[in-house]
Write a structure and sequence with these properties.
Layout: E1 2-7, E2 13-18, H1 27-42, H2 48-51, E3 52-55, E4 59-65, E5 68-69, E6 78-81, E7 87-93, E8 97-107, E9 113-124, H3 127-132, H4 137-153, H5 158-163, H6 165-180, E10 185-196, H7 199-241, H8 243-259, H9 271-279
Antiparallel strand pairs: 1-2, 3-6, 4-5, 4-7, 8-9, 9-10
Helix pairs in contact: 4-6, 7-8
Length: 290
């Protein structure tokens, strides 16, 4: 009986059991096994150095005897026994492995050429499938990641690639995980590292951004001038309504002028002397020029 996990249509996993018929050992296999045991007994205790193997906590060993997979699944962690000249084994690392996807040049949905690179994190979930069902799971996963990245970029616009990298990473991770599940590989994470654009497109986008910033600056300056004009108008209305405020402003201006280091001599003139000329009507013809 063999137990394992398989992916369901909803994306989860379920446990299954398979009953395998016991394999009948042929005469050649029986003789080879018996001979290996006899040699092992004769060469003891030196043969024990080649018979006992150790795998670490993060490793599993898949053992083959005369080309057939031994029952019981992958061995480890700990120590296990192999027959010399009969058994061969392959160690599988269960730790998370990361690799860089080389920069891929692709044509986006809006016909823009971009170059994108990424990083992929994966681990071995089923050591038996990783050894039996694929020749080199690491190289196969790398090639599949490059192809998947180009395919996903072809379905997105340039604006989506630049602004929504997380969605692209999630779509790539889901696609890779489904494709590598028969190999016993679990893709845990995919991250987009960099997006490179052609030089002409970069200059065009920079010019567009600069023009947009200049337009916003002009709008802000115009709004500031409008607010300043309204403030000056309100101040002039206050000074017109209050002669005392006008006199205080006059004295403040004289103080500011006299505080500067210059050769100008300021003679303050009382505001009462010129109030008559300020309040006179221009139509009376009594105005005087200073």
């Amino acid at each position: 009986m063999y137990a394992g996990l398989k992916r369901t249509e909803s994306g989860g996993y379920e446990c299954f059991f398979e009953y395998q018929k016991p394999t009948i050992m042929s005469c050649v296999e029986f003789v080879a096994t018996l001979g290996s045991i006899i040699i092992l007994i004769i060469t003891m205790p030196f043969s024990l150095f080649w018979c006992f193997k150790v795998v670490q906590e993060y490793e599993r060993a898949v053992i083959f005897r005369l080309g057939r997979l031994r029952t019981g699944g992958a061995r480890g962690p700990g120590i296990f026994f192999v027959l010399p000249c009969m058994d061969s084994y392959c160690k599988v690392d269960l730790r998370t492995i990361s690799f860089d996807v080389p920069p891929q040049e692709a044509l986006t949905k809006d016909s823009v050429t971009v170059t994108v690179d990424a990083v992929v994190y994966y681990r071995i979930q089923d050591p038996l499938n990783a050894v039996v069902k694929v020749t080199n799971y690491s190289n196969s996963t790398r090639l599949l990641a490059m192809t998947t990245l180009r395919n996903i970029l072809g379905t997105r616009n340039l604006a989506e690639i630049l602004s929504d990298r997380e969605a692209i990473s999630h779509a790539m991770q889901t696609s890779l995980d489904i494709a590598t599940d028969p190999w016993g590989v679990k893709v845990e994470r995919v991250e987009i590292k960099d997006v490179s654009l052609p030089q002409q497109l970069q200059r065009a986008m920079a010019a567009e951004a600069e023009a947009s910033r200049e337009a916003r600056a002009k709008v802000i300056a115009a709004e500031g001038e409008m607010k300043a004009s309204r403030a000056l108008k309100d101040a002039s209305d206050v000074l017109t309504e209050s002669p005392a405020a006008l006199q205080l402003r006059y004295l403040q201006t004289l103080t500011n002028i006299s505080a500067e280091k210059n050769s100008t001599i300021v003679f303050p003139l009382p505001i009462d002397l010129i109030s008559h000329w300020i309040s006179s009507n221009p139509r009376d013809g009594n105005n005087s020029r200073f």
